[in-house]
Design brief:
By secondary structure, this protein is α+β, with helices and mostly antiparallel strands. It has 16 helices and 48 strands. The longest helix has 28 residues.
């Protein structure tokens, strides 16, 4: 309510200000809530700094309807917001120049002007077009209509290769996942796009017409025109509304739907009416233009469903949940394990079932087509195939069965979809006890199991139980546990959702601790393989044989209890532990792609896109440790050797052996120096309180290494550049020589805005004063472009050699 009141006051103030006419050279705007925008002569449109709907301390340089304050039709700076105090000035040579509060340039129009151009004035027309003009020519030398964002207005046009990008979300105005473009000899094409690289996937809607120009005339009539004068209606004239009576616009929405809107000028409100929608059903139009890549309108494994307003909504299938609960249009992940090892046995014992989804299909995940094939055999074929995530069956004169692999892409559900999908989901509730991997089945599925399968399960359970009891009896007779060890096992099982292993089990699993994966300050890590929940899984066993202090047991209990309560996709999962006499071991999931250090500093440079995703993953993992898990955790040793990469190169933070746990009412701790040279925050050396900001500092150093693919301390580079990366990075930032910093990495340089943003975030993270460093939540928001990154000051750090 307060925010709406502010909007109302701002709207009234802005209209009353009546800044209109020509904007002369030297005139400027400042991003504040009190600064008035520039109005068109009719006061229909406003140009200036518009506060973000979600944060009134951030602003967009934008054009909007002056009487409909929250309807933005154009924005500069790629939709990136700027801080309060930022400034826009009209200059003779560069045109519009946008700077941050410290005076650093953020955006300007100079790249569209020639050296001989001298700007005389700017002007906001009644069509919503901001133009720059010289004294010599009446035609504009620059205009906002030539650089559309997500909206087209009457009077605007697109030439061949012109395009419009959707915004990222309803409230994030940077470029999103969809694009409208005019292509020669093809027409209007709506395509999904990769946000990180800008790469276009296949079209999901096409208006086939060999046109030369897309025209949205001032009467509100939109069509494609050819050289010989023939036209193709996009918005028929019988749906055209009089411009003098209606505001109107065409918007490529963040969900990929192109919608024409209108609203009467006499009864202005925020209630825009939909005139036309393209495509009519975006969910079922998927795939009509051939082979596609990417996930489609919704994320991977998700299903697109049309709502009553012809807008797509996304939902996860049974047994799946959102990867990111805050992104309803994102991907879904299975809530059960998907493994091939021992798969046939798992199926026999009822670990999986098939759930029917009527009128549903994922058209682009086929790996096998069975024809002719009846529905029963189609389902059985998927059930006993560990690669099969779902089957799609169509009942025709020649029944067809398509087997689908994960992840499923371009999911759609509608009455016109004739196929039925059977999706495979987990069926059993698994026990943490490896001797009893299947002990509970959902009641509604018990009666569906065949008699022989039921007998098989029962016999297997009995045999396993007897065998397990015998083994337990033999082990206890052979080597009785001390009372303290029995208590340790019971207590740890009470507060840790992890498995308990005996020392003999882990000795056998690691083949006598022979294959060493790495060494750390507190022990050695070995590779192994162990039976768990009916499958053999690869594990990494950390043997804490160097932990000799009197607080060893306390440290061990702290680590196990803390890690046992943490679960995040960017943290290495603790599988189990062993505490037997003097043996203390931790069992982790095995990461097949090794450490980030090996990945970054090897012979070949990883791609920029992969490095970006790794940096974001580490930031998300640290945010979880700092703010989102039940007990606040300071890692204290963030470095590339402690970041592991899984099969898909997802980054996972490992090694909490140095972690210091904080109770909820603590904000800092005093403890001995931990961590690794080059990554340790300055406060460690100054006997100052250690807070979560030590991890932020280490992340900043790590982020610079990810950007540059070189180590922070690199003595061999002393001849050609500074051996301390943190010092050299700030020098490169100040001199704007980012090409030198990334050593000519074309992929990174092509993504200049993100590259510079990541560098600025890293420089804020390594500030010597902990109070100047952002929190990990702010770090992640800045990396994702959701929060503006202010100009960083010199870190003035002391090299931690």
């Amino acid at each position: 309510m307060l925010f709406l009141s502010i909007f109302s006051i701002l709207t009234a103030t802005h209209i009353a200000a009546q800044n209109s006419g020509n904007l002369t050279v030297g005139q400027s705007f400042t991003a504040t809530l009190n600064d008035s925008p520039w109005l068109s002569p009719s006061s229909d449109f406003a140009f200036g700094f518009h506060p973000l709907p979600t944060n009134t301390s951030l602003f967009l340089l934008a054009i909007w309807y002056a009487k409909i304050f929250d309807t933005i039709v154009w924005c500069a700076n790629d939709g990136n917001p700027v801080q309060q105090g930022s400034r826009l000035v009209l200059t003779a040579k560069a045109g519009l120049v946008l700077t941050d509060p410290q005076g650093a340039s953020l955006w300007n129009t100079s790249h569209d002007l020639t050296d001989a151009t001298t700007i005389n004035h700017g002007f906001l027309s009644d069509t919503g077009n901001f133009v720059l003009k010289t004294t010599r020519h009446d035609d504009p030398v620059w205009q906002s209509f030539d650089h559309p964002t997500d909206t087209l207005l009457p009077g605007q046009s697109l030439n061949i290769s012109g395009f419009v990008n959707s915004r990222l979300s309803e409230t994030v105005f940077s470029n999103g996942r969809f694009q409208l473009h005019l292509i020669a000899k093809r027409g209007i094409v709506l395509s999904a796009r990769d946000v990180a690289s800008g790469n276009l996937y296949g079209a999901y809607f096409v208006v086939e017409f060999d046109g030369q120009k897309l025209i949205y005339n001032e009467s509100g009539y939109m069509y494609i025109a050819t050289k010989n004068g023939t036209i193709y209606d996009l918005l028929p004239q019988n749906k055209t509304l009089l411009a003098k009576d209606f505001y109107q616009r065409a918007v490529l929405n963040f969900d990929g739907v192109l919608i024409w809107y209108s609203i009467p000028k006499k009864s202005v409100s925020n209630d825009w009416s939909m005139v036309k929608v393209l495509p009519e059903n975006i969910c079922t139009s998927i795939g009509d233009s051939g082979v596609q890549y990417g996930s489609g309108i919704c994320g991977f494994n998700s299903i697109c469903v049309l709502d009553g307003d012809k807008r797509p909504t996304c939902k996860c299938p049974p047994g799946y949940s959102l990867l990111d609960p805050d992104n309803m249009y994102g991907s879904c992940i299975p809530d059960f394990k998907t493994e091939c090892e021992g798969y046939e046995d798992l199926c026999t014992r009822g670990a999986y079932r098939l759930e029917p989804l009527n009128n549903t299909n994922w058209p682009f995940s086929d790996y096998e087509k069975l024809e002719p094939y009846d529905e029963k055999n189609c389902k059985l074929s998927c059930m006993y195939d560990c690669f099969c995530a779902a089957v799609v069956f169509r009942e025709t004169s020649t029944p067809v069965c398509w087997k689908k692999k994960a992840p499923l892409s371009y999911g759609k559900q509608d009455v016109i979809v004739k196929e039925t999908t059977w999706i495979k989901v987990g069926n059993a509730s698994f026990s943490n006890d490896p001797l009893h991997p299947f002990v509970e089945f959902p009641e509604k599925h018990k009666n569906k199991m065949k008699f022989l399968v039921g007998v098989s399960v029962f016999v297997n359970l009995v045999l396993l139980t007897v065998a397990g009891s015998g083994l337990f009896f033999i082990c206890c007779k052979k080597k009785p546990l001390k009372a303290s060890d029995r208590d340790q096992k019971r207590n740890l099982r009470e507060f840790s959702n992890v498995h308990f292993f005996t020392y003999d089990e882990l000795t056998e699993a690691t083949n006598g601790f022979t294959e060493e994966l790495g060494r750390g300050a507190f022990g050695i890590v070995y590779k192994g393989m162990i039976a768990l929940e009916g499958s053999l899984i690869d594990i990494a066993v950390k043997k804490l044989d160097r932990m000799l202090s009197v607080d060893a047991d306390k440290e061990f209990k702290t680590e196990v209890s803390g890690i046992g309560r943490t679960y995040h996709k960017n943290l290495v999962r603790l599988v189990g532990f062993c505490k037997e006499e003097d043996h203390r071991l931790l069992v982790y999931e095995y990461m097949s792609n090794g450490t980030l250090a090996d990945y970054l500093f090897g012979d070949s440079r990883p791609s920029w896109v992969e490095r970006v995703q790794i940096a974001l993953g580490i930031a998300r993992g640290l945010l979880y440790l700092h703010e989102e898990c039940s007990t606040q955790i300071i890692h204290c040793d963030i470095k590339p050797q402690n970041i592991l990469l899984d099969d898909n190169l997802y980054a996972k933070i490992s090694d909490f052996g140095l972690a210091k746990l904080l109770v909820l009412n603590q904000t800092h701790t005093n403890t001995a120096i931990r961590g690794t040279k080059g990554y340790v925050a300055p406060e460690w050396f100054r006997n100052k309180p250690v807070t979560l900001k030590v991890d932020v500092y280490s992340f900043g150093v790590l982020l610079l290494e990810i950007i540059c693919c070189r180590k922070n301390v690199c003595i061999e580079l002393i001849e050609e550049e500074c051996p301390i990366l943190t010092d050299w990075a700030f020098d490169c930032y100040q001199s704007n020589t980012l090409d030198s910093l990334v050593r000519g990495d074309i992929e990174a340089l092509d993504d200049w805005q993100r590259l510079k943003r990541f560098l600025m975030v890293a420089l804020w993270c390594i500030q010597e004063d902990p109070s100047l460093r952002p929190t990990m939540r702010t770090v992640l928001q800045m990396l994702e472009g959701l929060v503006i990154v202010p100009k960083p000051s010199c870190p003035t750090m002391l090299s931690n050699m």
